[in-house]
Amino acid sequence: MQLISVLCGIFAAVFMALGLIPLLGWINWLVLPLCLIGVIFGVFGRERRPGLVINLLVAAIAALRLFLGGGVV
Predict the structure, then answer these.
(1) What is the mean predicted confidence (pLDDT) over 62-67?
(2) Which of 4, 19, 26, 55 has the fewest CB atoms lying closer than 10 Å?
(3) pTM of the model
């Protein structure tokens, strides 16, 4: 479970990095559900640290970028 969570976090981080480029902020709308899936798998793992932390951090940065860009840009 933890491996799936970490992989979701890594894929989400890659897409979030693309979403930080101006005019590509809409990609963060796709990142947030991927992070949510990673958080769900991270909660059910034996050790909760790596996958859960990665996904929560990526989700927070993506949400901040959407907030600052007005949800679109």
Answers:
(1) 92
(2) 26
(3) 0.88
